[in-house]
Amino acid sequence: MRNFFRKYSPAFIASVIILGFLLILSCMPTPLDPEAQNLMNRFQPPDWRFIQGVHPLGTDFLGRDMLSRMMSGIRISFFIAFLGTVIGAVLGTILGYVSAKRSGLVDETIMMMVDIQASLPFLIIAIAFVSMFKNSFMVIVILLGFAGWEKYARLTRGLSLSALNQGYAIALKTIGASPNRVFFRHILPNISSTLIVNMTLNFPGTMIAESSLSFLGLGIQPPYISLGRLLGEGRVYLLTAWWIAIIPGLVIFISALAITLIGDSFRDLLLD
After folding, report:
1. DSSP helix/strand/coil, 59
2. What is the largest CA-CA distance in the chain?
3. Distance between CA atoms of residues 172 and 164, nearest Å
4. Phi and psi for 29 in degrees, rounded to 5?
């Protein structure tokens, strides 16, 4: 542990501080109504004086306070990315275990689904999915959960097959333990660190995927606000009101980078 903090403390501590600040900001109540419009205050630039009546991050094309919209966008984007990551992890882990437990047709079918999922670009799947269903909040969450399940399935299958051939698993099966008990009570705790590291590394990808969908108009719809939606709304005003798009884009970049660095540090800590 001492060597870990000695070697990785700058990036790890900076990432934790940045991510903690964003999480605290997302949990705080917004200073103004994010949807309150004031056409007299359209395109006001950022004002960092933090006094009453000014907008620290400026206003958008409808005069809405960008700080309040950013706080709501961070909250929604993080929440959706978290739910999508958890759904993908649970689904992939279960399917990976089923594939490792059963050979033959079941294993081949699941692995074929994994190969198909890995070979198709996510945006193509998303467009097809959204065209069949309305892009509501839950549809987007489920779609993002399906976006990365194949990574967990392949990882769980490989680790489970390796663990089932080790001595403790063979001994448990010899004394009559069921395969489900062996996996959930003994194998899963042993491979959980690898799965957790994969979740931390997959979280930024899920967040960027949601931002990409919202940027294209296929993701979160009003009244919900996400960072990708803010970025998409501001792209047409880059030359006249740069802050509407640049600030959400910077938050997406910084948060994804911070979470990735934290995931790398966890990987070095848990898997060394």
Report:
1. strand
2. 77
3. 10
4. -70, 145
